[in-house]
Amino acid sequence: MNRGMLMAIVAVAAVALLGVLMRRTGGSAAPESASGPPEPEPGMEDDPEDRPAEAVAVTSDGLSFMPLGDRDRVRLVPVPARREMEQVVPGTPAEQLTRGDLVAARVKRGAPDHDPWRVEGIGRDGEYRAWRFETEDAAAVALTLLASRIVRMPRDEDGNEVTMGERDYAEARRRDEEIEAELASMPDVEERPADLLRRTIE
User: Fold this and answer.
1) How many Cβ atoms from other residues are within 10 Å of residue 3's Cβ?
2) CA 140, CA 47: separation in Å to the nearest integer?
3) In whole angstroms, what is the distance from residue 81 CA to residue 124 CA?
């Protein structure tokens, strides 16, 4: 065997060995590159309605104004109870407002030591509503949320929207104060039957 033939055999063997190595390397790398993230299980797709809700404003009392999935609802939830948009810690009170629950809302300057800023509202039946805020910005954000989702202004006979003024808010506050005064003057529920029985006997 001459030197040229020997070199040819060595070259062929080297090419064959290189091919084997390349196949092994490609075979082991292919599954890793094709694996990717696991496919979500059926029913586990990311639904925007299931994402955690973000509070857009928090009152001085720690109440979070949280928009719900659609355009016509707002949930008011105590801060420690914030969970998913449609879920609240069991036993924790939460209030939900829907479109039309308020006919008017506004931001009002309050007393510095009590309610630096206040969002006032008038309910569909003329009841007075108010939420306290530490800053004007927080109150303004809450008002924007209520105005866009909850407030439905009343209309006159011609179908024109009626704007509530200072007199309407004053009347709503007056009625609210009267109701609070009546409730404060009422005896405790546990004592009332006995008092009524005593008065009947007398």
Assistant:
1) 7
2) 30
3) 28
